[in-house]
């Protein structure tokens, strides 16, 4: 079996990560994998671990490496992203027409399909192949089911990652005052944010109740989240070009500012609320490095 250091080195090379990534992995990725493996020894099968962090915080890289490290320990792991549970464009268009125009934009609770997530979790605990949903962000629509990857079950661990995984509804009084210009100008009566908050208290609650453990990453502030999300969009633009697709499918700066405003309220609330309930809290600095070792 390859050593963890060798696994990290191979992963960093394949992903084109910076030279100091091994140091970061020693502070974050490897200790988290060890923590999850310890939780798996407690006997819950499958163990469902939530990985929550703001946009651009490095969740995808974290989960991808943790999956490899756990597999090297002989554990069968499935990864599911909350982003891959987004409703289809047609379903969000219907919500925008019937509930609020801002629901055209994916992101806030109410724009996912929690029942699909529950069905996938159930299936991953049974023998047989399970198709893992995928969402094409460049097309802003769910990928065809025929393209979804399949995982042979039952698995030992499910890593459910996403920017709002584990989030809880805000007290109703917190919804009264708009948090940014988007809410002030386009949701003056609070209908959109009220719908998202009700979704957390409603259909999202059973999905997040399936989490056996929760690891939370937080950013220094929301301005840093905007920077990180911009870097994500730059990488998407480069990937589209490399695939021969139109780089203009990625958002420009104005579109990104508007997009990230949809996430601001809940991102701030998660950073305030979830540290008190998460099993692991990782406070990141501007470089996405943990301020304290796990």
Question: How does this model look, in words?
Answer:
Keywords: Kinase, Transferase. It comes from Caulobacter segnis. This is Kinase. One of its GO terms (molecular function) is kinase activity. It holds the Pfam family MeaB. This protein is an alpha/beta fold. It has a single domain (4-283), classed as 3-Layer(aba) Sandwich (Rossmann fold). Helix content is 44%, strand content 13%. It is built from twelve helices and nine strands. The chain has helices at residues 4-15, 21-27, 29-40, 59-72, 89-98, 114-124, 181-186, 191-201, 204-208, 222-242, 253-261, 264-273; strands at 47-52, 77-81, 128-131, 135-136, 141-142, 150-153, 157-162, 213-218, 280-283. Strands 2-7-1-8-9 form a five-stranded parallel sheet, with helices on both faces. Strands 3-6 form a two-stranded antiparallel ribbon. A hairpin with a 4-residue loop joins strand 4 and strand 5. Helix 1 runs antiparallel to helix 4 and helix 10 (222-242) packs across helix 11. The longest helix has 21 residues, at 222-242. It starts with a helix and ends in an 11-residue tail after the last strand. The model has no long low-confidence stretch (mean pLDDT 94).
Write the layout of secondary structure elements.
Elements: H1 4-15, H2 21-27, H3 29-40, E1 47-52, H4 59-72, E2 77-81, H5 89-98, H6 114-124, E3 128-131, E4 135-136, E5 141-142, E6 150-153, E7 157-162, H7 181-186, H8 191-201, H9 204-208, E8 213-218, H10 222-242, H11 253-261, H12 264-273, E9 280-283
Parallel strand pairs: 1-7, 1-8, 2-7, 8-9
Antiparallel strand pairs: 3-6, 4-5
């Amino acid at each position: 079996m390859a050593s963890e250091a060798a696994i990290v080195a191979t992963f960093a090379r394949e992903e084109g990560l910076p030279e100091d990534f091994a140091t970061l992995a020693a502070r974050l990725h490897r200790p988290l994998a060890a923590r999850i493996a310890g939780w798996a020894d407690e006997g819950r099968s499958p163990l469902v671990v939530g990985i929550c962090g703001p946009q651009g915080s490095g969740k995808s890289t974290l989960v991808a490496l943790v999956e490899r490290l756990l597999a090297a320990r002989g554990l069968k792991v499935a990864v599911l992203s909350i982003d891959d549970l987004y409703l289809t464009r047609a379903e969000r268009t219907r919500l925008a027409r019937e509930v609020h125009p801002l629901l055209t934009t994916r992101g806030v609770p109410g724009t996912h399909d929690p029942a699909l997530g529950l069905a996938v979790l159930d299936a991953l605990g049974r023998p047989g192949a399970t198709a893992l949903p995928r969402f094409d962000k460049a097309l802003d629509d769910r990928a065809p089911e025929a393209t979804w990857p399949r995982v042979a079950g039952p698995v030992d661990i499910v890593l459910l990652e996403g920017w709002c995984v584990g989030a809880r509804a805000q007290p109703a009084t917190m919804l009264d005052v708009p948090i940014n210009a988007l809410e002030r100008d386009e949701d003056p009566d609070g209908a959109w944010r009220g719908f998202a908050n009700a979704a957390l208290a409603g259909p999202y609650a059973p999905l997040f109740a399936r989490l056996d453990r929760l690891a939370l990453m937080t950013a220094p502030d929301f301005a840093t989240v905007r920077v990180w999300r911009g870097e994500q969009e730059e990488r998407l633009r480069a990937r589209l070009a490399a695939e021969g697709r139109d780089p203009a499918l990625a958002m420009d700066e104005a579109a990104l500012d508007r997009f990230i405003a949809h996430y601001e309220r809940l991102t701030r609330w998660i950073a305030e609320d979830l540290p008190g309930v998460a099993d692991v809290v990782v406070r990141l600095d501007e470089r996405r490095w943990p301020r304290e070792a796990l």
